[in-house]
């Protein structure tokens, strides 16, 4: 039996259908609210607002569940590789070997970026933040690939997706190489997708590149863990920009900018800077715990808390273990890892954090692994963007295929009422 919800206001009753998702999530469908009543809803930060129906990612913040297309993040991080997960997210099913081979071959065919793009990169100062460079280069790709995507053609859509999956890792590697003053290079099409990313990033001009399985496995896992997270800030940005029928590359570039902020993907850089700061200050974690709880201090414990996870972030659990494994396997002792573990222990026992259900999130331990892999701190959020790329693409594709309307929230106006213009001589 279909369910309804009733809203009563000013003596009038309004009925709304209730939508129930496949995991029994309940939503009141208010599409007719304004037309029938003249009323709108107010929900800053969209804490209670579902912006779409989506079949890509499911997460339950109370139970700490995260699944891509029905598969648990734990199983995918253990058994799949990043390209398989990208295919799964974008096209909805795990690929057969021949589907995966074709996807990879098509990507290899597109893995060259127009040489002219190097001039754009060249014009950035070395001090530029890599996230700004990456957003700009992604946007610049449009100029070199101007044909708009006909979204009603699966073939057109596929071609645009493959192009982006192919060229984005080159841009990621170039932003790093620019920062490090290394010559720009292309990948090697005999390598796996992630292995190729590692080579493009780490190859030195005077040394033969040697594959390191620990690095590649760690990167694979991190990229998978970041690959999608339903309607977060950057993904919602990608969907809303795309909803104006701006192209795929423009939508992704906007998503990169949204990801950059320290409350979102930029937290991975902020965590390491915070841990380094605590170390330089004598390692007194209690002092920083007190700062985080002090409402007159803007300091927040970076890498803690999440809009949706109110129990634990399953990605953080996997990454914490991976950090131990990677550092152990590489023979690295990083005192910052001990500070992080100390902070986590204190926070989990502290009433302030317990009351607010604040737990370590995906960004708390990821930077420690990136550091162990010799990735500079300013590149951490770029690595997050590399991982999130298939998720953004999948969400953009879903939004366009569902022919969603342009995103355009309403507001409650709280400014001045109409008033007469006052000439400047009389103000
Ligand atoms: N340190 C100290 N207090 C915190 C923290 C923190 N990291 N996070 C939340 N709080 C407090 C906050 O002050 C508020 O307290 P009160 O109820 O007394 O006013 C309460 O907890 C609820 O916080 P909120 O800001 O209303 O929650 P939100 O859902 O709007 O924000 C968040 C979620 C992730 C932005 C926030 O927890 C935060 O700023 N965390 C630090 C930044 C971070 O690690 N971001 C990465 C998020 S996960 C990966 C990603 O999205 O990219």
TrEMBL record:
The active site is at 306, 363. It comes from the Bacteria. It catalyses: oxaloacetate + acetyl-CoA + H2O = citrate + CoA + H(+). Pathway: Carbohydrate metabolism; tricarboxylic acid cycle; isocitrate from oxaloacetate: step 1/2. It holds the Pfam family Citrate_synt. GO terms for cellular component: cytoplasm. Keywords: Transferase, Tricarboxylic acid cycle. The keyword tRNA processing does not apply. One of its GO terms (biological process) is tricarboxylic acid cycle. SUPFAM superfamilies: Citrate synthase (SSF48256). GO terms for molecular function: citrate synthase activity. Belongs to the citrate synthase family. This is Citrate synthase.
